[in-house]
Specification:
The complex is a heterodimer. By secondary structure, chain A is of the alpha/beta class. Chain A is built from 4 helices and 5 strands; from the N terminus they run βαβαβαβαβ. Chain B has 4 helices and 5 strands, in the order E-H-E-H-E-H-E-H-E. The chains are: A alpha/beta, B alpha/beta. At the A-B interface, helix 1 and strand 5 of A face helix 4 of B.
Chain lengths: 111, 115
């Protein structure tokens, strides 16, 4: 049975390639049961106005293959953002749901 | 034999992450575990050949050679090497791609991410 993998994005898309690389890896492991979780400054990666040139194709692939991308509501709130600021392929989840998702994982890959 | 894998991000000589990875990997090998290390992003430069030996500083190239000799599997992100111009690497390490991360996760009892 394939493992339940959660790719956790933490870092901002400006100043680092981590969100782009994390999404690349999410695509690579997508044959397993995979979820992507975005917390802290990585939430900026999914703003409607963010330049997604480096990872738009990965996001599109994840959408096509029904791999969910969850964004932490607390992280949005702390930055004065809301779900309305994000592209529509993203699902906003409460912190408790984010923590449950991570707790249920067999492996977490943090970027 | 339990398997532990490291998804490792850091380049050499900027933080202690490479030393930490080497020491954890060695400890796991000494406990009889199978060790796999996937060098991602700047970490591909940890296995670059020709790193100057400086007294008092752990030579990362040498450490990776030893880990490989002790049985660790070391895989290198090919795209990460291409964009960094990393062309030579220690014998025994091998080029890989992100699908190898999927295999590594499936084959491992534990995966540690070191950034």
């Amino acid at each position: 049975m394939s493992k339940n993998i959660v790719v956790i994005l933490k870092k901002a898309p400006h100043g680092s390639l981590y969100p782009a690389e994390g999404l690349r890896v999410a695509v690579a492991v997508s044959a397993s049961e995979t979820k992507v979780v975005s917390i802290e400054d990585s939430v900026y990666a999914f703003l409607k106005d963010t330049d997604m040139t480096l990872y738009k194709h990965h996001l599109d692939f994840l959408k096509e293959t029904e791999i969910p991308v969850f964004v932490d509501k607390d992280s949005l709130d702390k930055r004065g953002l809301s779900g309305d600021d994000l592209v529509d392929t993203i699902t906003v989840k409460k912190r408790s749901e984010i923590l449950s998702t991570i707790a249920e994982a067999d492996a977490t890959l943090t970027f | 034999m339990p398997t532990i894998s490291f998804l490792f991000f850091s380049g050499p000589y900027q933080s202690e992450s490479p030393e930490t990875t080497v020491e954890l990997a060695r400890a796991a090998l000494q406990k009889g575990m199978k060790v796999k290390i996937f060098c991602y992003m700047d970490a591909v430069n940890c296995v670059k050949v020709g790193q100057k030996k400086v007294p008092g500083v752990m030579n990362i190239e040498e450490q990776f050679r030893e880990l490989i000799a002790e049985g660790a599997e070391v895989r290198l992100c090919t795209l990460c090497m291409l964009v960094r111009g990393t062309k030579t690497f220690v014998e025994g390490a091998r080029r890989a791609g992100t699908p190898d991360i999927a295999d590594m996760v499936e084959e491992s009892d534990r995966v540690l991410v070191i950034s």
